[in-house]
Amino acid sequence: MEYIVQMNRLTKKIKEKELISDISIHIKKGEIYGLLGSNGAGKTTILKMLTGITRPTKGEILILNKRLAEQTKSVLARVGSIIEYPVFFEHLTAFENLKLHCEYLGFFDEHEMKQALQLVNLKGIEEKTVKDFSLGMKQRLGIARAIITKPELIVLDEPTNGLDPIGIKDMRHLIGMLNKEYGMTFVISSHILGELEQIVDRVGVIHHGKLLNEITLADIRNERSDYIELVVTDVKQAVYLLENDLNLSNMKIIQDRKIRIYDTAFTPNEISKTLILHDIEIEEIKKHSNSLEDYFYQQINGGNGDD
Amino acid sequence: MIKLMRLEWKKLKQKSVIGEVIVYPLIIMFLPIFFIEVLNYDFGQSYAAVIELNFFIQMGFILFGASLINQVFIDEYKNKTISLSFSYPFSRKKLFAAKILFIAMFVFLLTMASYLLTGIVTYFYDQVHSIINGDPTFSDIITFFSQMIFRSLMITLISFIPLFYLGVWKRATVPTVIVAIVTMQSSYLSSMLNLNFNLVLVVLCLLGSLSIFLSIVTAEKTGEI
Fold it and tell me: Could you say which of A70, A76, A84 has the minimum Cβ distance to residue B88?
């Protein structure tokens, strides 16, 4: 297995406070890896360590099989990133910022710079100073900067922050295109689980600085357990009818008036029809599919996320 | 290293720095004349005395050094652009060394240029208005040029005193400027406290060197975001 990133037993302490505890993550070449976690879980700290911005207190990071340390940072020339939010020299123009970035990496190709701006749909802004840009434009410019040298690894921390729905969709397409056409590996953190779900191959769930679990999206889909959830006024009567009239047994009373039916032999229409015929008032009925969001809440809350 | 130093220049607010580069020497070059003509004729008792006076005046460039420390180090931390630099394939020690060399070169060359400019302006003014007793001797000229190099170097080193503690560690703009202003007054403070000024200068140069040394050596730890 060819790994592009190997984080082994990483720990980060600041003033005796452990922000990251003994985390090991291995990311395969060409993979799109998502980091999930609530605010303050430690996602950004992990990404900062991965991009050389901050040093781990313990553990090691290997990028393309080369150990990342202060004296061996040359491998970072093959990594593009946006961490926290896109930072620029605000008094410089968009083009000057890109040029500066390229010069630091010993790369200068005006055509590539223009192409990167086109890929993120930023045209005609080359000579504008960055301080006049909206957050969305900065985010796009940050992506352009990250991909300009076509690095093998791109690390994006909340890349959809500040983007409008069209921008988010564009971003998703861009990540997919770069991954497929150029074989770029992505490590992405996001709190917009729906977005992440559409692009990542595998996720790692971070909670209180610890890696709770890693799972592929394919596994989540395979484990999918659909259910129907309904809110009724009379739970006892409803359960009685479901058991006796529809022969349903795989169900659970979640709250005072909420029932979750895991048996998928009947559609919500058929269930509601049965209940209404017996004068059971239904306040809400809907079919759920286990999603990345459910998985995330299960991991964070030990399966009691919305109970 | 030269490439990194050149990139430091590109990152700066160049118009504001160029403004400082013009304003500082422009004010300073007339100060010896002002001191002699307005404050005390004794400053013009000989060319040797004026050369000494010139040194005290050029110490104003310590403030220019503080201004560069603010822009090259502290602003990068405050605007978080330092995280960009840390994500490039260069060690922090190398990045910090480039920043320090950039500031040092800038302060040193500008102080030298100002030294020369002030000397020339004062000399020609004296030729017209005769404000200094006597003419410059060959020995005065040699002293002037050797001191121009040596003392510009001293001013450069002294300007780094606030770098380590206030620049890299505490990242405090105003205290950096205050320390620079106090250091600029070292000759006045020395005479007030009855201290040997030459000894004070040596101590200040050592402090500046120590500050540079600590900034580079501890770059990984104190430079942490």
Answer: A76
Q: Do B11 and A100 touch (CB under 8 A)?
A: yes
Model pLDDT for residues B48-82, shown as the tens digit of each residue: 888 888 888 899 899 999 999 999 999 999 998 99
Question: CB–CB of B83 and A48 under 8 A?
Answer: yes
Are the beta carbons of B87 and A105 separated by less than 8 Å? no
CB contact under 8 A, B7 and A100: yes
| All structural domains of chain B with their residue ranges | 2-222
Is pLDDT above 80 for A301? Answer: no
Tens of pLDDT, residue by residue over B120-143, are 999 998 888 888 888 888 988 898
Q: Inspect the interface and report whether the beta carbons of B88 and A48 lie closer than 8 Å.
A: no
Percent of chain A whose predicted confidence (pLDDT) is above 70: 93
ipTM of the prediction greater than 0.90, yes or no:
no
Question: Would you call A87 and B86 a contact, using CB atoms and an 8 Å cutoff?
Answer: no
DSSP-assigned letters across all residues of B46-101: -HHHHHHHHHHHHTTHHHHHHHHHIIIIIHHHHTTTHHHHHTSSS-HHHHHHHHHH
Where in chain A are the domains?
A: 3-220, 225-288
Report strand pairing: A210-216 vs A3-14: unpaired
A41 closest CA partner among A307, A304, A296: A296
CA distances from A25 to A78, A199, A216, B173 (A): 19, 19, 13, 40
- Going by C-alpha positions, the residue among A180, A205, A209 that lies closest to residue A190 is A205
Average confidence (pLDDT) over B88-95: 91
- What are the chain A neighbours of B7 within 8 Å (beta carbons)? 100, 103-104
CATH code for the part of the protein at A3-220: 3.40.50.300
Using a CB–CB cutoff of 8 Å, tell me whether A84 touches chain B: yes
Question: Are A13 and A57 in contact, with CB atoms under 8 Å apart?
Answer: yes
Q: Which residue type occupies A119?
A: L
Q: Which of A262, A271, A270, A269 is nearest to A226 (CA)?
A: A262
Contact B220 A91 (CB under 8 A): no
Distances (CA, A) of A297 to A36, A193, A302: 10, 11, 8
Query: Given CB atoms, is B7 within the 8 Å cutoff of chain A?
Result: yes
Residues of A in contact with B79 (CB under 8 A): 87, 89-90
Q: Mean of the per-residue pLDDT values for chain B?
A: 90
Chain B residues in contact with A91 (beta carbon < 8 A): 13
- In this structure, what token pair is assigned to residue B132? 């200094």
Best interface-test mutation with B: which of A91, A149, A152 has the largest number of B CBs within 10 A?
A91
Shortest CA distance from B10: residue in chain A: A100
Q: Spelled out in words, what is the top-level CATH class assigned to the domain A225-288?
A: alpha beta
In this structure, the number of other CB atoms found within 10 A of the CB of residue B179 comes to 21
Give the tens place of pLDDT for each residue, A93-150: 999 999 999 999 888 788 888 888 888 888 888 888 999 888 888 888 998 999 898 8
